[in-house]
Amino acid sequence: MAGVDLPFACDCGKLRGTLLGVSPTNGTRAECYCHDCRAAELYAGQPDPAPGGVQVYQSVPDRVRFDLGEDQLAAFSLSEKGLLQWQASCCGALLFKTARTPKLPFVSFRTDRLEDDNPLGPIVARAFVRKPNGKRGHEGGLKFMFGFAVRALSRRMTGLWKQTPFFHADGTPVRDIHIVPENDRKKFYPARS
Ligand SMILES: [Zn+2]
Ligand SMILES: [Zn+2]
Which contacts of 169-177 are long-range, i.e. CB under 8 A and separated by 24 or more positions? Predict the structure, then answer.
């Protein structure tokens, strides 16, 4: 499916770009309720999403293009091995999550940064939702994993995984990654009981 190109921007508008070829089949729209997604928002100084989830569209890095203010792009991670959290340093807005290596070609895009999110289609998966029994579970997980696997595999086979605005050709991220120190990190997670 060809899809449509959608402009996105950080909250203050300094960092702008385009999501290319957006359609309900070129990516998966999902909502995540996990502690990490929430912690990343809080660390970035964004409004607390809880008890709601964080809305994302999971697609591939070759469908992301930065158009303006790319120098505002910054990255952090909540741990040494955690996902890379890409934000706009001007206003703190979180825009993308990626793996630590371009060889795992996926990008999770915060859909709040779009003017029009209709072309993404409906939310098809929910992760870490709290169930009536108090436990957390997933809905639509298979669909989500299937979409991820098919897209990642096709990128690996075609070599398109190398086309990414987040990594240099040698596989290192285009920004220094700030690792949030353990003591700071703890503040953004619920206390263990
Ligand atoms: Zn999450
Ligand atoms: Zn901004």
Answer: 171/101, 171/102, 171/103, 173/75, 173/84, 173/100, 174/73, 175/73, 175/74, 175/75, 175/86, 176/75, 177/75, 177/76, 177/77, 177/84
3-state helix, strand, coil in the chain (%, to 5): 25, 35, 40
Average pLDDT across the chain, whole number:
93
CATH code, 4-167: 3.90.1590.10
Could you identify the residue written with the tokens 């909502």?
A: 31
At 46, is the pLDDT very low, low, confident or very high (cuts 50, 70, 90)? very high
The DSSP bridge pattern shows strands 73-77 and 64-68 to be: unpaired
Domain ranges of the chain: 4-167
The residues whose Cβ lies within 5 A of ligand 1, an ion, are 32, 34, 37
Ligand closest in space to the Cα of 144 = 1
Distance 126 CA to ligand 1 centre (A): 10
Cα 94 to ligand 1 centroid, rounded to whole Å: 13
User: Which ligand sits closest to the CA of 10?
Assistant: 2
Can you tell me the distance from the alpha carbon of 153 to that of 182, in angstroms, rounded to the nearest whole number? 34
* pLDDT tens sequence across 75-90: 999 999 999 999 999 9
**Cα 33 to ligand 1 centroid, rounded to whole Å:** 6
- pLDDT bucket at 108, cuts 50 / 70 / 90: very high
